[in-house]
Amino acid sequence: MGAAAKVAVLVAGAVVAAGIGFVVTGWIASQPPVLTVVAATALCLSSAIATFLLADAVFRHTPQFGPIAVLMGTGVRMAVAVVGVLLLSEALAKYGTPRDEFAGWVAYLYIATLAIECGLLMYGSKTQVIPEKAP
Predict the structure, then answer these.
(1) Interatomic CA distance for residues 116 and 127, integer angstroms
(2) Is residue 132 part of a domain?
(3) 45 occurs within a structural domain
(4) Is residue 24 part of a domain?
(5) 12, 97, 108, 124 - which has most CB atoms within 10 Å?
(6) pLDDT tens by residue, the chain, 135 residues
(7) Nearest Cα residue to 54 out of 74, 29, 36, 39
(8) Distance between first and last Cα of the chain
(9) 10 and 52 in contact (C-beta within 8 Å)?
(10) pTM
């Protein structure tokens, strides 16, 4: 599976996760504003695609540095998520979105996209990252 197909799976997975969260939240409590879900999905998905493409390129060219690329990508994504929550929660508060609700959506979608990204990076990987011990 090529990088473009994996990105398509990542996007589809994030949209499905957002949809599931939106429906389940509607069952438990009041329906969240669509703007909140869309903003959180866009924030998490944009950084997920960027770090996925970087980590995928590293895995293809130098597989031994793949785990380092994933960890660095996770740090970048976490920084983007935290800064995004701080900045966007102010803007979304004007539309009636509570700050903690937006932060919860970002945390949920961050974890969902991270799981999908790691699964896609490992899918079809024929390289052995940790070498076997010599006899």
Answers:
(1) 19
(2) no
(3) yes
(4) yes
(5) 97
(6) 788 888 899 899 999 999 888 888 777 766 667 888 888 999 999 999 999 898 888 888 888 887 888 888 888 989 999 999 999 888 888 887 888 888 888 999 999 999 998 888 877 665 555 556 666
(7) 74
(8) 35
(9) yes
(10) 0.79
Token reading at 120: 């896609």
In a domain, 129, yes or no: no
**Confidence (pLDDT) at 13:** 92
Q: In three state form, how does the secondary structure of 57-122 look?
A: HHHHHCHHHHHHHHHHHHHHHHHHHHHHHHHHHHHHHCCCCCHHHHHHHHHHHHHHHHHHHHHHHH
Q: Taking the CA atoms of the chain, what radius of gyration do you get in angstroms?
A: 17
Domain that holds residue 34: 3-122
Cα angle 4, 6, 9; round to 5: 115
Q: What is the DSSP letter of 123?
A: T
Structure tokens at 5: 């197909």
The C-alpha angle 102, 104, 106, rounded to 5 degrees, equals 70
Length of the chain: 135
